[in-house]
Design a protein that fits this description.
Elements (H helix, E strand, L loop, with lengths): L4 E10 L5 H12 L2 E6 L5 E7 L1 H13 L5 E10 L8 E3 L2
Parallel strand pairs: 2-5
Antiparallel strand pairs: 1-3, 1-4, 2-3
Helix pairs in contact: 1-2
């Protein structure tokens, strides 16, 4: 059993209205990662992801690329202890 790690990513750039949340969900599910993605009022996207450390590193690389119409400026990444046990990956509205 792998230890569960958690990362919070604040993604900035042109990341709203470009299918970024859908991209984040599809890639998380591909990796078996659980957590949430949501648009924030300042135009950024917040991702909370839980999974194996190496898997999360690959996922963060995907978040840095983003979907075709996005232009990711930065992915501010904070590793932290999980406080919530997610069962799936979903959008927070």
């Amino acid at each position: 059993m792998h230890a569960i790690h958690e990362v919070e990513c604040i993604v900035s750039g042109r990341v709203q209205m470009v299918m970024y949340r859908d991209f984040a969900i599809r890639h998380a599910r591909r990796y078996g990662i659980v957590g949430t993605v949501q648009n924030l009022s300042e135009g950024t996207v917040r991702v909370i992801a839980q999974g194996a450390h190496d898997t999360l590193l690959h996922y963060i690389d995907d978040l840095k690329r983003g979907p075709m119409f996005a232009k990711v400026g930065d992915v501010h990444t904070t590793w932290r202890e999980p406080t919530t046990a997610y069962e799936s990956f979903s959008i927070v509205y």
